[in-house]
Design a protein that fits this description.
Elements: H1 11-14, E1 24-28, E2 34-36, E3 51-55, H2 59-63, H3 66-76, H4 91-94, E4 113-115, H5 118-124, E5 128-132, H6 142-160, E6 165-170, H7 174-185, E7 190-197, H8 203-211, E8 215-219, H9 223-236, E9 240-241, H10 247-253, H11 255-263, E10 271-276, H12 281-295, E11 304-310, H13 315-321, H14 351-365, E12 370-375, H15 377-388, H16 396-410, E13 419-424, H17 432-439, H18 477-494
Parallel strand pairs: 5-13, 6-7, 6-9, 7-8, 10-11, 10-13, 11-12
Antiparallel strand pairs: 1-2, 1-3, 4-5
Helix pairs in contact: 6-7, 6-10, 7-8, 10-12, 11-12, 12-14, 15-16
Bound molecules: pyridoxal-5'-phosphate (PLP) and zinc ion (ZN).
């Protein structure tokens, strides 16, 4: 829609002006000091604590009135302006210091809410939706945060005349795919390097950064080890760190919460949002996003947030298992092989953010609204397979969300009359190898998964007698007819087709 066709009160706000950069600050969760955003910081220079970005003047957002924001965001969806088409549709709530000209948009965000069909509904015993974040450009939610982080780097590079930037990240697969994709769009300005645990990312995830031209470095160990290496590098060398330690990523990922609110016409009463937890950046962003919308009156209540972890990588679940907050103590766990490989993390970097935000969330809601549930590898796989047999494209982490919903219903954390939104964080195609292992009964014992026979699905081979077409040697005339008849007969037999009368 053209600008002059929008309602008159909306028109002046459609294209936002950036706020002065000192409106936003890094805030240290350890020592509570604040730092200027024009320095790229990943941890507190004073105490080493984890940072969050804060809008120093959030009050100006809260004063406008929620109704106005709802209308602005709904109208903005009809505006054709590249910079505001993705996660920056919610510009004012994400990073209102980045000029529109620096924003990088590759098609991220605005992923669909797909309602569970009747079969899935009956399977679970409640209504729910998948939000398919696998439909992002690099096929995972990581693009939301990367769009924000690299837009900021783009802005900073222009401001400071930075050249030859090297961006690095450790990854369970999807962060590197996303970082490499966005960096490749920026051309010569930035080169990306990714550090992966050898043999612990899927072939598809490995292909992605390679295709985007990133330097891919594989090291022994698991993700937690890669993270330590990247941290050491970012302390000593001049590199841009793109892990979720980089708080600009958290801001972009808040869009997941904003889109859920918008997709439900801002009515989140009686809703529960399920998020698989790995490094805990995503759940931090979801909590922060709903909180910001709540404080600004864009939503009138806070939905339940339910984090899900596999029993093979469950440090956050273990932390909240202790009900007395004073007795809680965070202890990293040693992870075991998990089909939810993207969440296979024993020492989540964002744990301090989780602790802070969960506290604030429950306080703001006036009751406990954040929960963490634990599921088995078996439950994750069964849930993913069932979801995808009913019209979804859920990855193993999406299966983890669904398994989490089933667990939460059993524990009565979520009631049958509540409606859930499940984060399917990536596309199944990235995790096809786990589907293969399930269908072909190829899980090694470390996973503890026994495929259900009734779900198995493998290709059926037909090898007809007689002449067959070969590449470059097609059959013709009678030979082709004989081949088609024989194969058609065989297919009809396999499918038990009935003849037309
Ligand atoms: C990164 C990732 C997760 C875990 O998200 P965190 O922010 O690390 O908790 C879950 N699923 C997929 C597909 C991911 O790529
Ligand atoms: Zn500090």
């Amino acid at each position: 829609m053209k600008k002059n066709e929008f309602p008159e009160d909306i028109q002046p706000c459609l294209l936002p002006e950036p706020e002065p950069h000192d409106k936003m600050l890094y805030y240290c969760l350890g020592c509570h000091r604040e730092f200027d955003i024009l320095n790229l910081l990943y941890t507190c220079p004073e105490c080493g604590g984890i940072l969050l970005l804060r809008d120093k003047d959030a009050e100006r957002l809260n004063k406008v009135g929620g109704k106005f924001w709802q209308r602005l965001f709904d109208y903005r969806k009809m505006l054709n302006h590249q910079a505001l088409k993705g996660v920056f549709l919610f510009y004012e709530f994400i990073a209102p210091v980045i000029p529109l000209r620096d924003i990088i948009y590759l098609g991220e965000g605005h992923t669909p809410l797909v309602k569970a069909n009747k079969c899935l509904r009956d399977y679970v015993g409640a209504d729910f939706y998948f939000k398919h974040d696998g439909l992002n450009p690099s096929a995972s939610f990581k693009d939301r945060g990367m769009a924000c982080a690299l837009s900021f780097v783009n802005y900073l590079a222009r401001q400071k005349g930075m050249q030859d930037i090297i961006a690095i990240c450790a990854s369970t697969g999807d962060t590197s795919a996303s970082a490499a994709l966005y960096a490749s769009y920026m051309g010569d300005k930035i080169k990306s390097a990714v550090i992966l645990p050898a043999g612990k990312v899927t072939p598809q995830q490995l292909a992605q950064p390679l295709g985007s031209g990133a330097k891919v470095i594989e090291i022994p160990g698991v993700f937690d080890d890669c993270m330590k290496v990247v941290e050491a590098l970012s302390c000593k060398y001049n590199v841009v760190l793109l892990n979720s330690k980089n708080s600009w990523r958290i801001l972009g990922q808040e869009s997941f919460a904003y889109e859920i609110a918008q997709g439900l016409d801002y009515d989140v009463e009686g809703k529960a949002v399920f998020v698989p937890i790995g490094n805990a950046g995503n759940i931090s962003a979801v909590l922060s996003g709903f909180l910001k919308f709540f404080h600004a009156g864009v939503i009138n209540s806070l939905p339940k947030i339910i984090g899900v972890q596999s029993e093979h990588a469950d440090p956050v679940f273990q932390y909240y298992r202790e009900t007395d907050p004073d007795k809680r103590k965070f202890v990293p766990v040693a992870v075991k092989s998990s089909v939810a490989q993207a969440a296979m993390i024993g020492n989540p970097v964002s744990m301090p953010r989780v602790i802070e935000l969960v506290n604030e969330y429950n306080l703001s809601a006036g009751e406990q609204k954040v929960f963490v549930v634990q599921v088995t590898e078996q439950e994750i796989m069964d849930a993913m397979i069932v979801a995808n047999r009913n019209g979804n494209i859920a990855c193993t982490q999406g299966g983890e969300s669904l398994a989490g919903l089933i667990r939460a219903m059993e524990e009565r954390t979520v009631m049958p009359d509540e409606v859930s939104i499940l984060d399917s964080t990536a596309h199944i195609l990235k995790f096809a190898m786990f589907q293969n292992m399930y269908f072909n009964d190829k899980f090694t014992s470390e996973y503890n998964v026994t495929p259900k026979k009734e779900f198995s699905n493998v290709p059926v081979q037909i090898s007809p007698e007689g002449e067959c077409p070969l590449p470059g040697k097609p059959l013709e005339n009678d030979a082709l007819n004989r081949f088609v008849d024989r194969v058609a007969e065989e297919v009809a037999r396999k499918l038990q087709l009935k003849k037309t009368t």
